[in-house]
Amino acid sequence: MGTDTINITLKVWRQGNAADKGRFETIPVSGVDSHMSFLEMLDTVNEGLILEGRDPIAFDNDCREGICGTCGCVVDGIPHGPNKAMTLCQLHMRKFEDGDVIAVEPWRARAFKVLKDLMVDRGAFDKIIQSGGYVSVNTGSAPDANALPIPMAVAEKAMDAAACIGCGACVAACPNASAMLFVSAKVSQLALLPQGRPEAAERALKMVAAMDQAGFGNCSNHRSCEAACPKEISIINIARLNREFFKAGVLSEAS
Amino acid sequence: MQLDGKIPSGPLKDKWDNYRFKAKLVNPANKRKYKLIVVGTGLAGGAAAATLAELGYHVQTFCIQDSPRRAHSIAAQGGINAAKNYPNDGDSIWRLFYDTIKGGDFRAREANVYRLAQVSNNIIDQCAAQGVPFAREYGGMLANRSFGGAQVSRTFYARGQTGQQLLLGAYSALSRQIGAGTVEMYARRELMDIVLVGDRARGIIVRNLVTGEMERYAADAVILATGGYGTVFYLSTNADSCNVGAAFRAYKKGALFANPCFTQIHPTCIPQGGDYQAKLTLMSESLRNDGRIWVPKDPNDTRAPQDIPESERSYYLEEKYPSFGNLVPRDVASRNAKEQCDAGKGVGPTGYAVYLDFADAIKRDGRDVIARKYGNLFDMYQNIMDDDPYETPMMIYPASHYTMGGLWVDYELQTTIPGLFALGEANFSDHGANRLGASALMQGLADGYFVIPYTIGPFLADHGVSEVGVDHAAFAEAAAEAVDRDRKLLAIEGKRTVRDIHRALGKVMVDEVGMARNEAGLKQAIGSIQTLREEFWQNVKVGGAADNFNLALQKAVRLADYLEFAEVMALDALTRDESCGCHLREEHQTEENEALRDDENFCHAAVWEYTGYGSEPAFHKEPLVFENVELSQRSYK
Q1: What angle do CA A210, A213, A219 make, to 5 degrees?
Q2: What is the 3-state secondary structure (H, E, C) of B136-151?
Q3: Beta carbons of A60 and B66 less than 8 Å apart
């Protein structure tokens, strides 16, 4: 826990609103405590901007412990920055050197409109879940939880997929701005579990349709999504999604 | 004022059944005529909105985040309690009820807590059916662990992400209803006011955070599930957007606020790095199941923890509380950590931290087992502190985490404003003066899935469908007030940022209204809060405009609320001249520094009524009647 300070230069995307064209702004930042998180550094920059009467940088964030999925921007070309398997709020300034120039941009995808500066609208993800990312069980109608044993290994795999935080880094990383990793994580979680089987086929078809409708691109196996994912969601889920989707198309009543 | 908790008659075990049988029902065909507003989409709000829509009501729901999947419930790590007794280790509804009442140091209502324990089992069933990937045993049955002071294993969990998985379960149920068109979802909206017509809640004013616009929504009833007020301390484990705004608006409109001084400090947080930091990261206290807490015996010991031999370590919790050891309740663990640090035995660069050591557990169970249980927490720690907890002990320190106080509600979860309900952390009802670990998720989901769907019925059946729409003058008035407040804040153009003043408020609250309190300190705190409030309204610098996304303005409004609310907290702490649960008045403690209750004079909920800006709120009491449990002095020895 050193208390070194560094001087950096931010090249940060500024855009007044969705209709604005947007541009990079250069902001020199001196005396950054290297123990700070990246977002704490932005907070500090914003304090200075407010006192100077300038518009603070708008960026989404909330829990600051890597679980809510709210934060995220592209730092030096990498969604959530250089740390593997971490959200932006968990990036610390000790990863940077004195004199670094750091480019900060919002997620870029047709389906994610920029609202202001680094903030984007990820409502398309919600729409995809609304199309079928659930088990249709009304409150009160559930049997005893232990009435349905689930092998530990299956539960663990489902949990691996369920760990998705819906941040959108997979889309930002993908050259096609595809949402396949996000969709596949939910489809896999529910397809692996017996509770989710009755609707598995219909779910895969509906969620893929919603994904296409929202304007996300196709998957062409770049695997950039997996590399950028802060929760290390595996592309094995995409294979499961393809299987579920194919099965649904060929075999199921739902098709 | 006579506060009627509307506790149903009959023996404790029959009260909820009696209530449900006697409660008026809304005809299924009429349900869709009722419009209900749910503010907040955490466990309580998300579960409520989904369930009410399943029942047929027309629901509009609002969240401050960009998606209903992100509410702060998501950050709960450890687990959720239920009285399933799957491990066959002696648990029961009665034991869960008793533990919760006792954990709250006998400052909660028996009937509410019993109901909570009763529905706890339904929650687990519901969540498992939704596809929540709970941890399992090899045979496929659900796994349980003992958690935060419980002597039975009743906590269900999904790795260290239980809150996330339960919230995603509620979110999926809510999404299903949004998809079906029975719920209208409005994200990036912040509640600015509750609209009352003839003393009854008829709707809300929200700020569209993206456009800045004040929007109006009318309904037959308004449900607040807007969480707690832990960020009043500035330093807290809560998310950035957590605030008291919605509850405080309700309070200013006449809803009474109960036990605001009951706030929980969580013992296992990562210590603060510097002034720039408001967010402290919590690590699940499930860590205390396997980690051992210690400090060096010698305050001057500067050796690395590995170099300090066993004989020169003080495992102070195990020594002081042999039967509970490291699993003592949160307040006891927190105060003891502070005590050790105040005595100079704290470790780390600030001297405000203690060790949490896994060496013995790793030796006993192997690294893999520990990694499976706590892997994500260990990774999180390593990233923030740049230190490997598999090799060296973690450093931890307490931080503000949860608020038991909240809007006063009756058994039906209705506030003193007719038609205004409060669920989850936003109400005061179930945790008394302290909350047991893994009980927040339980209460949020209980209120949302299994309580409000029943208890809102009688109100709606009695009052019929509302004719009031957003064109009523009361909506224009409330919206104009909110716009006016923005204008005032933007016009101050002072020299201190919102964050700077919030930091100053937090310091006052942590020092004087935090883990330990006393009369002189509380009186001083009230003075300091008033001074800061004056300064805020004269010297804050907000900047920007009200007609687009303006985070500084949003934060200024939230801080303005805190600068009033903090005083009510301090006043409540001052008026409660006893210690109980997490509320430790230094004047009232046992020789072992345990909270010393005064049941003769303080066996009540302290309930505050707004009387105008800058004027002292009126004090009311709801006496707590214990017919089923004997009030015992808590002892964790």
Answers
A1: 80
A2: ECCCCCECCECCCCCC
A3: yes
Residues of chain B short of pLDDT 70, as ranges, are 148-149, 592, 634-637
Q: Give B565-603 pLDDT, tens digit per residue.
A: 999 999 999 999 999 999 999 999 887 678 899 999 999
For residues B251 and B612, what is the distance between their CA atoms, to the nearest angstrom? Answer: 11
**Nearest 10 degrees: Cα torsion B631, B257, B97, B284:** -110
Predicted-complex ipTM score:
0.97
Show the DSSP H helices in B6-159 as ranges.
15-22, 28-31, 43-55, 93-103, 110-130
| CATH 3.30.1700.10 correct for B266-400 | no
Domains defined for chain A, CATH in brackets:
5-116 (3.10.20.30), 123-250 (1.10.1060.10)
The order of strands in the sheet holding B263-269 is B263-269, B394-403, B354-357, B292-296, B313-314
In CATH terms, B473-623 corresponds, of 3.40.50.10860, 3.40.50.2000, 3.30.930.10, 1.20.58.100, to: 1.20.58.100
- DSSP-H helix ranges across A105-223: 123-130, 152-162, 169-173, 180-192, 200-213
Residue B549 has its nearest CB partner, among A51, A86, A115, at A115
Active site residue B288: no
Name the 3-class secondary structure at A21.
coil
Q: Return the residue matching tokens 């499961």.
A: A240
- The whole-number pLDDT of residue B634 equals 66
In chain B, where are the structural domains located?
Answer: 14-77+112-118+161-263+402-463, 266-400, 473-623
- Measured CA to CA, the distance from residue A10 to residue A45 in angstroms comes to 10
From the list B74, B159, B497, the residue facing A159 with the nearest CB is B159
The residues pairing with B545 across neighbouring beta strands, listed in sequence order, are: none
Q: Give the Cα separation of B474 and A101 in Å (integer).
A: 53
Report the alpha-carbon distance of residue A230 to residue B411 in Å, rounded. 43
B198 touches chain A (CB under 8 A): no
Strands A101-105 and A5-14: parallel
Residue A112 pLDDT greater than 80, yes or no: yes
Sign of CA dihedral B354, B356, B360, B363: negative
Q: Is there a contact between B449 and B130 (Cβ–Cβ < 8 Å)?
A: no
Name the phi and psi angles at B184, rounded to 5: -100, 125
Chain A CB within 8 Å of residue B134 CB: yes
Residue type, B618: A
Domain spanning B14-77+112-118+161-263+402-463: CATH 3.50.50.60: yes
> Per the structure block, which two tokens stand in for B356?
């949490």
B282 touches chain A (CB under 8 A): yes
What is the SS3 assignment for A245?
helix
Strand partners, B293: B356
